[in-house]
Write a structure and sequence with these properties.
single chain; 5-stranded mixed sheet; 19 helices; 12 strands; 480 residues; binds protoporphyrin IX containing FE
Length: 480
């Protein structure tokens, strides 16, 4: 990655760092003083398009280079002003200390996203979001989701049953299929498997063309009545019909299937009110969309990193052999699969599936000594901050051993935030970590994955951080 070549040219940032790092806990809540704070520096860009061409050409390189301007950077995308925040203290201010002054960025309010997930948890705001979060939260408690551990192991097991030694596989495609099957089963259980599989298939088809565009480019494109957009709306209609039918059948049967849909159907607010069909549909779609690709990407990048780091891979296999001794993993094994957990943390540091968070300022405020006008779009990039040498020694190295409790405890809170933070923290984070570790353990116990020669892996920063042409691996059976 080209990141390190920019480090020497940032003396101002490094001089600022030590003082700021010490004061994380006592960070003052900044208010607007009598003298207006200055606007932050940033790249000029094209007179009309602003930084859009450069951003679309090389998204990750661009957001890395922008850090040369400092910890708060201003950039213009056509008519939209965006700030990039690189320092954990400033990220904490937006996401966690003062979240009421921010709503989700306009990219999440686009027609495309709204048509798919409506007013689901990811996109809703204010009182509606609060109520939905309150209703959905119990469905994600550790105890409730523990019932899904067996489903996760079972599907991983079925997948590898057809793997043949020495064959070349696209591990990213495998992981996408696997996590889709798992989310389908855990949301809808088996009784509606055909319908649910259909939803999964249609959904993964329709997000494909959009996922391959840079987010901000999409803001502009999505207003055009192109054939692709018309197709998208037709497919979305098909999904709606299926999901509404599943909800109606479930309401009619009155049976508790023990899946996420049953839990959402049964959820009551304090006044006894429940979710409407529309709200249930929006949440189901949100969980589909938020829950499967992110998890698949974490798994794919983890396999990619393991294949390139034989010493880590050896330790990983050693832990699986010690803890499991050849049997399938269960939930009870998770606390003992400590090194596997560190591997996942480190993989999500280097390849965060959600590589940026976006917010919009409701009222003018001040961040890091700079003025933030209302409606400014604010972006915070896990991709850059989680590779910042001020917080992570040898930031480009895949080094799971760094994740000791002391190290994690000494980090500024928002130096590492793959699941976001504050009130909008990922509701599925425990579910995801459970799934990732169980799948890694099930597969890693039986197979070793080596990168296929002549298939370079490159990154496509779309809605999430994808491998552009998949990740081809040669699978070899392990002797346990
Ligand atoms: C490795 C896997 C995952 C990653 C990296 C991830 C990442 C994130 C991030 C960064 C956010 C915060 C977005 C923001 O603040 O703007 C988020 C929110 C969310 N995630 Fe995840 N996620 C993962 C897995 C899941 C799973 C498995 C589910 C559900 C089954 C899920 C459901 C959600 C929902 C519903 C929200 C919105 C929460 C709210 O605003 O109240 N995620 N996720």
């Amino acid at each position: 990655m080209s990141y390190s070549k920019f480090i020497p040219s940032r003396p101002a940032v490094f001089e600022m760092a030590p003082g700021r790092m010490k004061s994380v806990e006592e960070l003052p809540i900044r208010s607007i003083g009598p003298a207006r704070a200055p606007l932050p520096p940033g790249p000029q860009g094209h007179p009309i398009l602003g930084v859009m061409p450069e951003f679309n050409r090389d998204t990750l390189g661009f957001i890395e280079r922008c850090r040369d301007y400092g910890d708060v950077v201003r950039a213009r995308f056509l008519y939209v002003t965006a700030y990039f925040l690189y320092h954990p203290d400033d990220i904490e201010y937006v996401v966690s200390t003062n979240p009421r002054n921010f709503v989700k960025a306009m990219s999440l309010r686009s027609n495309f996203f709204h048509r798919l997930v409506g007013n689901g948890l990811l996109t809703s705001e204010g009182e509606l979001w609060k109520r939905q979060r309150r209703l959905a939260q119990p469905a994600f408690h550790r105890q409730r989701i523990s019932a899904y551990g067996d489903v996760m192991v079972d599907y991983a097991q079925r997948m590898i049953a057809i793997w043949r030694p020495s064959e070349i596989r696209d591990i990213h495609r495998d992981m996408m299929r696997l996590t889709l099957e798992i989310v389908v089963r855990t949301l809808f259980n088996a009784d509606v498997s055909e319908d649910a599989d259909k939803v999964g298939q249609v959904l993964s088809q329709i997000v494909k063309p959009f996922a391959s565009q840079a987010t901000i480019k999409w803001i502009l494109d999505n207003r055009l009545p192109t054939a692709a957009h018309r197709r998208f709306h037709r497919e979305a209609q098909k999904i709606d019909e299926i999901v509404y039918r599943i909800i109606a059948d479930r309401r009619a049967s009155g049976l508790d299937q023990g899946d996420l849909l049953s839990m959402l159907l049964e959820a009551h607010d304090e006044d006894g009110s429940q979710m409407t069909d529309k709200q249930l549909r929006d949440e189901v779609m949100t969980l589909f969309l938020a829950g499967h690709e992110t998890t698949a990407l974490t798994l794919s990048w983890t396999w990619y990193l393991l294949a390139q780091n034989p010493l880590v891979e050896q330790k990983f296999h050693g832990e699986l052999d010690d803890v499991l001794g050849g049997r399938l993993p269960t939930l009870e094994d998770l606390p003992r699969l400590k090194y596997t957990d560190m591997i996942v943390r480190e993989a999500m540091r280097l390849y965060p599936p959600a590589y940026g968070l976006g917010r919009e300022a409701i009222e003018e405020c001040e961040i890091g000594g700079f003025r933030v006008p209302r409606r400014t779009q604010i972006f915070m990039f896990q991709w850059v901050t989680q590779r910042d040498p001020r917080f992570f020694p040898e930031p480009e190295a895949f080094h799971p051993e760094r994740w000791t409790e002391e190290f994690a405890g000494s980090l500024p809170k928002y130096a590492y935030f793959p699941f976001g933070g504050g009130p909008r923290f990922c509701i599925g984070n425990t579910f995801a970590m459970m799934e990732i570790v169980l799948v890694l353990a099930t597969i890693g116990q039986r197979f070793k994955l080596a990168l296929a020669p002549d298939h370079p892996v490159s990154i496509l920063p779309a809605m999430s951080l994808r491998p552009r042409n998949g990740i081809h691996v040669i699978v070899e059976k392990r002797e346990v």
